[in-house]
Amino acid sequence: MIASATTVPSSQVVNIEDLRRLAKRRLPRVVFDYLDGGAEAEVTLRENCRAFEAITFRPRQAISRADYDLRTRVLGSEIAFPIILGPIGYTRLIHASGELAVARAAAAAGIGYVVATFAGHRLENVREASSAPLWYQLYLIGGRNAAEAGIERARQAGYSALVITVDTSVSGLRERDLRNGMKELLAGSPFAKLPFLVQFLTRPAWLRSFLLDGGLPRLENVVVQDQGPMPLVDVSAGLASAAVTWKDLRWIREIWPGPIVVKGILTGDDARRAIDEGAAAIVVSNHGGRQLDGVSATIKALPEVVSVVNGQAEVLMDGGVRRGGDVVKAICLGARAVLIGRAYGYGLGAAGETGVARALEILRAGLERTLRLLGCGTPEELDSSLVQLPDEWRH
Predict the structure, then answer these.
(1) For this structure, is 95 an active site residue?
(2) Distance between CA atoms of 206 and 28, rounded to whole angstroms?
């Protein structure tokens, strides 16, 4: 039995991989592979997960604690445990409720959520769906005027931070998207779409929901003057004219009054530049292996960035997090919290809001269990003495 859009049988879903399997059975191939895939040979995509497996724990035994507290603070906001839901574009294609479902699940769990530029629901509506901290991830798609309008909407709606992704000077070559007809399905002629339509007919539940939702959504938060919200575009075309430079950060800092988070950093040199340009936080990220294939796994790059930042900004990381123990390893190596993407995206694809909630429940439980087995009571007690890195990483 396939999980419906409102139920997640606990006997079927005990880890994130279970949610991935359910999402694969519910979603058309092009939608699932957009969520699941990476760039080129997907070396970095695989390495993000494998690198966590290479790190081993060094627990402190025979320790009894009266209580455990997973709360932490990120950019001045308290969250219930050190996980933030990262930005995923095209979320409304994965499930019609899209960002609204994600925001509600994040609020119920007491954690933050970063809403993507390529979102299908309006910033204001997502804000209404959540009482938790919300950040807005900005691409310059549509030009500076559209970006300025989006920044102002985010400010007025109460978004507390702006996330600038800096690793997308061009879109990575996502071969699964090419094979599955993503470009043709989003912007091609009716004849160009025909070879790719059978994958939707084999997913009738998803197709019915998609059609009842009005078909392809628009980019509700990218409003081009006199044209309204932009149509949904292929991500490659969308990012081609949306690259962010360090010079753009100076302009953004002038018009955004809150903290700026720079996402996509993998080296100490770029971390230093981000701090010099006013970043309040840095996300060590390789875009989930979706941009330049062959770069370092983010958990492997994390210690260098933490060392260079040296407390001058908060350091977060994403990429490859599938278990609560992965979160613990990242914090041991200096991250304040982690961002997750696919882990909750699979839940959304499997069962909407309920699936996202189940993903967060799995990760939270795994985080607390690992913390207790290490002999620690709070995330603040985690440090590098509790993990052993592979010898080759030290060189």
Answers:
(1) no
(2) 8
